[in-house]
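Changelog-adjacent note: as of this version, every example in the card shows the full chain rather than a window. The one below runs 413 residues end to end.
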Amino acid sequence: MDPTPRRRARPTPRRVAVGLLAVLALAACTTPSPSPAPTAGSGTLTPEVTPTPSAPAVAFKPSVDEGATVPVDTVVSVAASGGSITAVQLTYQDPKTGPQAVEGTIAPDGSAWTARSLLEPGVAYTMAMTGVNVDGQQSTASRGFTSQNLSKKQQIYPRLVADGATVGIAMPVVVTFDVPVTDRASFEKRMTVTSVPAQRGSWSWFSNTEVHWRPESYWQPGTTVSVNLDLNSVPAGNGTYGQMSLAGGFTVGKALTMKADLAAHQLTVTIDGAVARTIPVTGGKRGWESRSGTKVIMEKFSTLKMDASTLGIEKDDPNYYSIPDVRYAMRETWSGEFLHAAPWSVGSQGRANVSHGCIGMSTGNAAWLFNQVKVGDPIVVTGTGKGMEKGNGWTDWNVSFADYQAGSALTQA
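Full-length structure tokens:
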């Protein structure tokens, strides 16, 4: 035998290729067995999840259209559906003061927002609205519009008399307007008077340009009175609107009253319930009688020129007079009746009526009275046959409270 071991023959490449193809073919033809379904004891079950579609965004519905020009008395509001409102910013550019914001109120359930004030005339407004849908997803929207322009003649300017002053117990709240108010009720609904302590009272219109408010009886001394005229852009009729809102008031001082008995030619001054002084006076002579009634001091002048031409008396009339420096004049009526110093008639004071309607007294008594009296103090004049005309001064106290209330535009409505 041959001692040399034999080598095993190496397979040829073709045989290797055939074998590899057989293995691949087997793998390609084999189908994997499905995994067994999990059982209750085999582990945690994973349920099949179906995706939930997202809720639509909250929808905003403003009360004004995009790009619209709207009346100044528009109350801007926004309603929401499919969610709630979280914020609304309504702004405009004031030519004098710059950017301004309009305050508003969101309903407790978020369903609406309402502006607290009306619009300024002739300005562009921008409104930014923010809200969330039922899923809490936030969205925003915006809107722009312009308010109608108004001429000066279309705007009514209010003025509050004696604002910030200390006044007498008969002082009415007096509001005047530079343009007539024909829709009195619209204005009166937006005008309020409050006081501490509280006192019942009413508005009463004296004309289309003047309205007063008085309590049922004289103010209590020390009362603080607050007046709010929320009139900006409020319609007043005939295409006119309030030009601005106004807030103010006054404080009531000590209780001073005057009683002038012109038949007896005496003026009695009472302060806080006690007679402070009795003053000899003279009133209007025959043909020029002083008016009897309850008057209210409206103005005070330490020196005042008095000219009879303001009463319609011509310079060639024997009754004409012109005095450049009448001292301590206190106005009672718009027609020219005053309390004042009259040194030229001292001999008649306490004895006869010789004036043209004013109540005259000595300079010393007039100076004392001038220093005691406030605008708003009452003077009750008796002893003449001539009465007061409504509106000739602050004639608020010459009628009953029921008749006074009848002058309210809301009572008339």
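Structural remarks: The two ends are 146 Å apart (CA to CA).
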